[in-house]
Each structure stands twice: as structure tokens, then as C-alpha cells.
Structures
1.
Amino acid sequence: KLLDDTPRGREFLMRTPMKRFGQPEELAGAAVFLASDAATFVTGSVLVVDGGFLASGVNQ
């Protein structure tokens, strides 16, 4: 909740399609996948878990 109350936090939320900050448990699936045998051939990749922030065009 701390970032919600700052100008920078509000700007971030305005540019995020989900209109909220992610919760730690929402990162768990990505972390479990990357640590699992299912990801043994995954290298040099970025798995973005950001509520659509990057897809919305960060530099607008």
C-alpha cells in the first residue's frame, strides 16, 4: 500500500492495465515454473509478471 500513496506509485498504476500492484503469491507460479524440471531447457529468457505494464508501452 505504500507505493499507492505516492505520485510515482499512482503513475505506475495508471500505466498498468491491471490497475493494481501484484501480490507476492502472484509471482509464485512463475518462480515454481522456473525452478522446476519443466524449465530445464529455458535459458536467457525473461518471464514478465507485471500485470501488463510492459505491454502497455512504458515510455508513453
2.
Amino acid sequence: MSTTDSTSDRPISEAAQAAFMRTFSSSPQWVSRAPGRVNLIGGHVDYNDGLVLPAAVEMDTHVAFETRDDRRVRAYSAVFDEVIQFDIDDLEPGSISGWAKYPAGVAWAMGQIGLQLKGLDAAVASNVPIGAGLSSSAALEISFAAAFLTSSELDLTGLELAKLAQAAESQYVGVRCGMMDQATSACAEAGMALLLDCRSLEIRQVRLPEGVRIVVLCTGVKRELSNSDYNERRRECEEASGRLAAVDNDIQSLRDVSPERLHALLRHLPPPLDRRARHVVGEIERVRLAASALEQGETERFGELMFASHRSSRDDYQVSIDELDSLVELARQAPGVIGARLTGAGFGGCTVNLVSAALVDAFLAHVTRGYRKLYGCDPKAFVTQASQGMTLQPVGL
């Protein structure tokens, strides 16, 4: 696990420490940090054993914490202005609600593999927007996973922690997510996109071009992921792969179908399963091409693939909304744009845009003006670079 004293993280870290001292009348021992993420390309393929290419962003969740001698957890969230408590020995799925289910789920998942956890007191501060498609839940899970790991004097890799956090969200919280969000939050490196094979869990860091910025534009339309159509899309993919497996038993998931093979198999899939499969198979191929484009310095080609990804997400996977489509179209016409697409699950949230650093202000002016004309409000914008994944810092050093 990395340690850091990055000055850019200090305001949020200091807020978490101050909240801890107000709540518990003592100083924390450690601060764990985990970032949100944007998915540059590879939408809705992580749970189809596909390839994804996300990057961590410079928006983070910090957990200031102190180890307890028992197995009780007390945690304050500055985001919700609420103290929650639970016992590690009493974590039946469904018994805890609200934001508490995320740290509780992590503790539950760790217990499921036999890890003996100590309790902790914790305070959380974050600037990762909730419901914006930037994986605020994964940042919360990974920062608490690091806290539990440290307080209990356990040793796991970032990828092992990500697996536990994914199990927490999928089995405890109830959102059937893939590994992308948690793996990015735990394992990303600064300046890099993370090419993750969601079947083998192999990770390759791919350097992003110099002189570009990641611009996240938020529609302001929020969604509660477990109550959205996310789970329905996943069910449709499972049904599509099951139907194709009945035709070809070498097919275990949509990952096993090439674009050429799918063309011959589409007649076995009724609507809308044919469209869902076409998106997933095409998107996995786009990720391969996108990673290759970055490695070969073909930035323009990478941008073209981002736009193609959005079209597929809109037309075949049907997870976009008018506001997201408008942001992507405005971005396409803006100065300095390289590529744009929706990020996260869709159904609201944000777009991710790759923009020339020298033209970020002109890009934002164009998009903001157009969006305001359409919707009467400004999209919230975050300008960031690919950041470091999970870190841990002792307090006072």
C-alpha cells in the first residue's frame, strides 16, 4: 500500500482529521485515501468478463481512523453529517442501510474469507460527487478496506482488497457490479490509464498523452444505482450469453464472441438482447484498439473510439439520457476536444472528455454556453489528471 504526503490531498485529509477530533475527542492514527474514477472507454463490459480502460481522478475519499480494542465500528461522515455504529460480529446482509452499508459490507466481506478484524473509530470526508458516475461507493469501500486492513495488522495486495470491496458491493449492498471501480480505486497509478482484463484480472498501466486533461462534466441528474436499470442490463447480458452458449458451448460469456462471430450469431438473439450483445462485443474490441492507440501515440484515434463508444452506449445499450447526449455533442463541436463519452453506469451522471490542456477554458466555455441554452443550468465541471490509487498516511508524519 502506498503512502503519500501529496499537498493536493491535504484539504480533504485535514477535514477528515478535524471531523475525527470533533467526534471522538482524540487524534486519529492514520488517514486512508481512495480516489473516484472515470472510465475512459469500456462501458458495461466489466461484468461481461471484458476489458476496461479507466483512470483514477483527483477526487478522493479520506478516512481518518484509530484502532479499537473491540470489534465495534463507529464512523462519522462529514458528507451526511451522521454517526453510524455497528458490530463486526453482527453484519447480516440487509440489516444495515444508508451509507453505513458500504463500510459494513467491506467488514462483512473480509469476515467471509476468515480475516479477523479489529474495530475502529473513523471519520470520512470526500469530494467525490455522489450519484455522478465517478464511483463514490468504490472510493468509500476501498478507503475503509485500507483502514480495516491497517487497524487489524493484515497484509493484502491492492487487487485482493478490490476483490473484497467488489464482493461487498455486489453481495452485501446489492449492486451487481464488476471489478472495474474497486480495482481502479485501489490499483491506479498517476498519469496512467489502467487496462484491466476483468476475466483474468490482469492489469497493465497505459500512459496517457502529455498535454491533455480529463474533464468530467456532470449533468446534475442523479440515480440510485441499485434502483436503476443497471441490474436489468446485466440480466440481459447473462441471458444473451446463455442463448449463445446453447448454440456454441465454447461461449461462456460475451467476452468469448468476436465481432465477426457475433454477426453470424445475432439471429439467435431476440430484441433487445441483440443490441445488448452488439454493444458489449463491440466495446471490448474498442478497448483493445484504444489501448493500442495510446501506446502508439495515436491520440486522435483514441478520441474517435471514445465517440464510437458513446454512440453504442446510447443506441445499443440504451443507458444514455438526453442530457448526456447533449454534453457529448457539444463537446464534439468544442475547441480542444479529443474524445467524449458517458462514464459510469449511465442513466444520468457524467461524461468524460479528453481535452487539450491549453484549450480547457475554451472547451468549457463552449459546452457550458450550449448546455445552459438547452437546459437552463450549467453542468458542473471537474478538470483533473489521472491520479494515484489507494494510499495510506500516518498522522503527524
